[in-house]
Amino acid sequence: MANVDNEIKGRLALVTGASGGIGAACARDLWLQGASLALTCYKNRATADALAQELSVQDQSRKISVHVADMGSAADLKQLILDLEAEHGQSGPDILIANAGYGRRIPNILDISLDEFEYTVRINLQAPFMLTKLSLPHMLRHQWGRVVFVSSIAAIGGGINGCHYAASKAGLTGMMKNLANKHAHVGITFNDVAPAMIGETGLIPDEKTVEGTAGDVKNIPVGRLGVPQECANVVTMLCRTGYMTGQSILLSGGLK
Ligand SMILES: NC(=O)c1ccc[n+]([C@@H]2O[C@H](COP(=O)([O-])OP(=O)(O)OC[C@H]3O[C@@H](n4cnc5c(N)ncnc54)[C@H](OP(=O)(O)O)[C@@H]3O)[C@@H](O)[C@H]2O)c1
Questions:
Q1: Matching CATH number, 12-251, of 3.40.50.720, 3.40.50.450, 1.10.10.410, 3.40.190.10
Q2: DSSP character at residue 159
Q3: Which candidate, 17, 31, 87, 226, has a CA 20 to 30 Å from the CA of 40?
Q4: Residue 66 has what pLDDT?
Q5: Mean pLDDT along residues 133-149
């Protein structure tokens, strides 16, 4: 029987967008599992610092670093991995949660400018591509890695946003499936979680934000918004389940 290694304790997890709702929940959950953390933020550094402070008082034997990085800047992403190495003493993360995302709500293609399309793809698809490329050499050296992309119900045509956002998230799922096939034999798994209508986030702070849209709580079969912790539950499960790879998990309260 081959070695089964699903241990998170002692690993280093890079969580992007940890200043946001879903990223912060993922960071908390992975910390509870015993991981060290490298957290990114962009405009809301104070929120990420407060999270790092909250977690580090619980356990000072592990390290948490906070990094400001613009997902739209290739230079920032390269620097992020160098800074991670300086802080944690390893050349890349063992676990990559590519969660930072952008999605200005523009439902109609006729209103989506080319600049908006390009920017959305750069943040939601190009940045996870680059981060994966930068993280993979370390994972390959150790023959162990977990990569989880935070996609969206938009990837399968649902949700409340336009085709720019859908294209960026569907691209993420396609990239995940390709990478999963290529790396299953070297101990590195790739999966995504595809949420919909997760409240307590910058994208969807509360029910009012989705009133009158396809994501109105009235249309969600379970009758409420999801919460970031439910997304974190799936992410942690994917990190702890090395037999699962190449999967996109829809987390949508029953929405299609
Ligand atoms: N909430 C939902 O229902 C839902 C549904 C489907 C998919 N998602 C996906 O879930 C992920 C997390 O979003 P969320 O719902 O937690 O929303 P959120 O609270 O607004 O968090 C978004 C995060 O992304 C970061 N970010 C945005 N643009 C960035 C940029 N250019 N460079 C670096 N970081 C950037 C933000 O950093 P700063 O705040 O520091 O700028 C923040 O940490 C996103 O990929 C989103 O598309 C969410």
A1: 3.40.50.720
A2: S
A3: 226
A4: 98
A5: 98
Q: pLDDT per residue over 3-27, tens digit each? A: 899 999 999 999 999 999 999 999 9
Distance CA 255, CA 190 (A): 24
Q: Give backbone dihedrals phi and psi of 52, rounded to 5 degrees, phi first.
A: -60, -40
Q: What is the pLDDT of residue 2?
A: 75
The structure's pTM equals: 0.98
Which pair of tokens denotes residue 188? 């590195």
Q: Treating both helix axes as pointing N-terminal to C-terminal, what angle do 127-142 and 74-88 enclose, rounded to 10 degrees? A: 30
Domain range list for the chain: 12-251
Longest dimension (CA), the chain: 56
Pinpoint the alpha helices (H) of 100-241. Answer: 114-121, 127-142, 163-183, 228-239
141 C-alpha to center of ligand 1: Å?
A: 30
Nearest Cα to Cα of residue 70 among 8, 19, 33: 19
> Could you identify the atom of ligand 1 that is nearest to the CA of residue 17?
43
